[in-house]
Amino acid sequence: MPSWPAETKYISHATTRIDGPAKVTGRARYSSDIQENGWLYGMILRSKWPTAKITDINLDKALQIPGIKAAVLARDKNMTVRYYGEELAAVAGTTKQACLDALRAIEVTAEALPFVVRENDAKKPDAPRVWENAPNYPAPRARDHGDVDTAFGQCAAVIEGFYSAPVQIHNPMETMGNTVSWTDDGVTAWSSTQGISSVRDGLAGSLRLDQSKVRVITEYMGGGFGAKFGAGVEGVLAAKLSKEAKAPVRLMLTRFDQALAVGNRPSSFQKIKMGAAADGTLLAFEAENYGTAGIGAGGDSGGGGGGADIPMPYLYKVPNTRVKQSAVAVNAGSARAFRAPGNPPASFGMESAMDDLAVKLGMDPLEFRLKNDPNKIRQHEYALGAEKFGWKQKYQKPGSSPGVVKTGIGCAGAAWPAGGPSRNTNGEAQINPDGSIEFRLGVQDIGTGTRTVIAVVAAEMLGLKPEQITVKVGDTRFPPGPGSGGSTTCASISPTVYDICTKALEQLQTLSGIADARGENWFKACKKIGINPITVHGQWIEGLSTNPAGGVQFAEVDVDTETGLVTVKKMLGVHDCGLIIDTLTLESQINGGIIMGMGYALYEERVMDDLSGVVLNPNFETYKLPGIADVPEIEVILVNMPERGVIGIGEPATVPTAGAIANAVANAIGVRVGSLPITPAKILAALGKVPPATA
Amino acid sequence: MKNSEPENFGAHSRRTFLKSLGTVAATAATAQVTTVAAELEKANAEKIIGPNAVPVTLKVNGEKLKLMLEPRVTLLDALRNYSSLTGAKEGCDRASCGACTVLLGDLPVYSCQKLAIEAQGQEITTIEGLAKGGKLTKVQSAFIEKDALQCGYCTPGFVMSVTALLKRNSHPSAAEVKHACAGNLCRCGCQPHILQAAFKAAGVEMPTKTEVVNYA
Fold it and tell me: Which is higher by pLDDT, A274 or B10?
């Protein structure tokens, strides 16, 4: 079995990003920066109706605008749109200004239809149907284990609570989009994607081209968080515009588009009943959860049947459970995968219920978790974190913090059961006689430091320095690898690079006669390759990576009981990291997960208007992300477990944050705010200082 | 908190404000109505520029950039789409994310909210203009060293904001760094490292709060 070296120079140390200089100088070329010769600007016209029968779309006047070179329909002149922002048509022109004029010149004839955008309204039997042939709210499926009703009778304490989380929007800083060039030789797409292979296959399928005729390039992309796996309507439209205009077309979405049509995290409304014995052992759990994935889970599959389920009762061992789940369709854009799909809402609801039950039992919430979470690693992490955080010294009974500004603490756990490596990861290295070496892997860097991981592992294995390794990713012409999702990339590429390096050293030994070509022998050995470079192929191998991943987080907050403002003072994350590759980029990812979780806890919510059917906050003035002044002191404990091999960290880092913050707020004010985001208005309503808002 | 912004930050003169109203009839219900009308008339009497493209000369990173632009073209649009300077990024196109931040003189501005024709005659510095002769500035080096970036799309904006801050205040407090970066958003969550990088660039080393603990 292969194994990682025990003593390391680069693995598990801090290495700065090898593409850092490109990113701080503006030299890094993002998909939205591509300027192919003769490129045109592309823009999409979107439906202003939440539901409508479109009977005509006339592009003639748009085509007369000076500078406009092409205009295409998104689907057909006759079609039904099912949400505000659905694509109708697209134009390409020499300038953005010409495109803006052209969009205004397109004439659309439509008959508006009744719509429904709120979950509770859509559940009603007489609500307008989002899909004609499917109910908005299919009967929930129930899963039963044990005997819930009898078990509740044996509980010393039972709580019932309602916990809800809104639709969250990915909002990567670079919007979705691409530049596409369609020539006789095929299609080249410079796509802002986290999955070059899935975009290639999607484009080939939609455009009816051989997969070999489509090339996708992603040198740099500005974040994805789960929303950027597919070719997207914007990919297909850019290709069609390029074909018609016979020129490359750059079509990036606007920030407004981003809120309407390219994915989100489904909402979650959880009714939870949970009971425990007097010693704190959980005995019974009953829950009903629903949420909306918009018009469906990722396409025209229809109905509200899927896409909003969450794992329940999440981390905890309960012998008797009954869980009912269903999704409700509304006239809004479809959900997509979003960093740890299903887990942040599950963690928020379950961890809130855990604290509420602990309070009712008169137990310390941390002790209560240790009693019911069977996972040994998390048990260890809770102990480490509690010590560092000062849990015992800081914990007070809920609401007992004195004064107007009350302090509270909370904790929560995370699991990410997927997160395993992708076996279908391939790569190659070209080794030149002068000793220079270039790795090529058909993966992409979503911002996690993929190039740097490859360089660190290669440098370690070959006895070189990371800066001596050239890394090329983001091109479907390279040996294929997985999409950047599910916290799988690091665990997929590290063993692949290991394999390439092992094979390279074997070949060099044969060619040069030098027994160990590493380190100072490297250049001597390479000189003996001959005139032509050698190319070494490798793939993911068993024994160097694993899953799952998890962690725990602690939060300390101040709550101003006069204004309702929550200030997060401190976050502590304790995460199992397997074999750490680069402590620096790892720390960045955990910080990022926590900060995104803070947004989920306190600020973020897609707001729909039930009268007009539009998203009311499709921009950063009204859809609030955490800013630098909101971000507290963040402490991170990286639990190093090299014996596990390489694992991923992207998803688990964002899972428990909202639960930990919500619990800290409840601990501070002595009342549960069961609805995310925890806004000042909700705090004041919970304290009885203002009437609750009515939806 | 001390306001560290220069006094003229974001200031509009009365005259430029009135000009921006153009020929739109203003409903003036104050005693100043006649004065306003007179000023409007005077402003409108000046030559109307556009709507067709006009020659525009921008001084970017010390070099002259001659372009033909419709007057409605923003500085960001001019840089990214009419020249090859794509370092400044478009994240929102409405002054709320800061990815497009450039310097006008020493002042950080949202280039998406500045018309290119208005930026004529001023020294414009973009992210591409910082490293002279390929040598990274202290701010750029500190961003790399502290890993103050992930996807890197917001990075040019943050680097420009921190650069502008350190030009006017070489030893800022944490509150001043946060104030200077309050107009920049980062979705990857690099804010703690950006704060560390700003301090590092000012010569102050902030200790990391991260520790590695072996499980076994």
Answer: A274
Burial class (CB in 10 A: 0-12, 13-18, 19+), A60: exposed
Instruction: Give the CATH number of domain B54-129.
Output: 3.10.20.30
Chain mean pLDDT for chain A: 95
pLDDT tens readout for residues A614-673: 999 999 999 999 999 999 999 999 999 999 999 999 999 999 999 999 999 999 999 999
pLDDT digits (tens, 9 = 90+) for B135-174: 999 999 999 999 999 999 999 999 999 999 999 999 999 9
Question: Could you tell me the two tokens for B192?
Answer: 């703690």
Closest chain B C-alpha to A652 CA, distance in angstroms: 15
pTM: 0.94
Q: With an 8 Å Cβ cutoff, are B152 and A593 in contact?
A: no
Both tokens assigned to A597: 């979780």
pLDDT score for B207: 87
Q: What's the pLDDT band for A503 if we cut at 50, 70, 90?
A: very high
Q: What is the CATH number of the domain that holds A487?
A: 3.30.365.10
Residues A577 and A666 in one domain: yes
CB contact residues (below 8 A), chain A span 485-544, against chain B: none
- Give the whole-angstrom CA distance, residue B40 versus residue A97: 27
Reading the block at residue B149, the tokens are: 């970036």
**Nearest C-alpha of chain B: how many angstroms from A151?**
37
Using a 10 angstrom Cβ sphere, with 0-12 exposed, 13-18 middle and 19 or more buried, the burial of residue A430 is middle
Mean pLDDT (whole number) for A23-48: 98
Check residue B38 and give its pLDDT: 79
What residues in A contact B72, CB-CB < 8 Å? Answer: 97
Taking each helix axis from N to C end, the angle separating B191-201 and B138-145, rounded to the nearest 10 degrees, works out to 140
Residues of B in contact with A193 (CB under 8 A): none
Q: Which residue of A has its CA nearest to B163?
A: A24
Partners of residue A594 in chain B, C-beta under 8 Å? 189
The rounded percent of chain A whose pLDDT value lies above 90 is 93
**Mean pLDDT to the nearest integer, A575-582:** 96
Q: What is the ipTM of this complex?
A: 0.97
Can you tell me the distance from the alpha carbon of A653 to that of A637, in angstroms, rounded to the nearest whole number?
12
Residues A220 and A245 in one domain: yes
Residue A124 lies in a domain: no
Q: Please give, rounded to a whole number of angstroms, the shortest distance from the CA of B35 to a CA of chain A.
A: 35
**DSSP conformational letter for A466:** G
d(CA A217, CA A31): 8
Residue A417 forms contact with B (CB below 8 Å) = no
Any chain B CB within 8 A of the CB of A556?
no
At position A209, the amino acid (one-letter code) is L
- Type of residue at B171: H
Cβ–Cβ below 8 Å for A21 and B93:
no
Structural domain contains residue A57: yes
- What pLDDT is attached to residue A491? 95
Q: How many domains does chain A have?
A: 3
For A219-232, b/e burial (b = at least 16 CB within 10 A) is bbbbbbbbbbbbbb
Q: Give me the residue from A175, A592, A629 closest to B188, CB to CB.
A: A592
Of A26, A593, A629, the CB nearest to B127: A26
Q: Which of residues 65-94 of A touch B (CB under 8 A)?
A: none
| pLDDT of A428 | 98
Q: How far is B61 from chain A (nearest CA, A)?
A: 13
Cross-strand partners of A284: A275, A320
| Residue B7 pLDDT level (bands cut at 50, 70, 90) | very low
Domain of A471 in residue numbering reads as 20-29+421-538
Look at residue B27 in the predicted model and tell me its pLDDT.
45
* Residue A390, number of CB atoms within 10 A of its CB: 13
Judged by CB atoms closer than 8 Å, whether chains meet at B92 and A641 is answered as: no
CA proximity to A119, closest of A293, A260, A262: A293
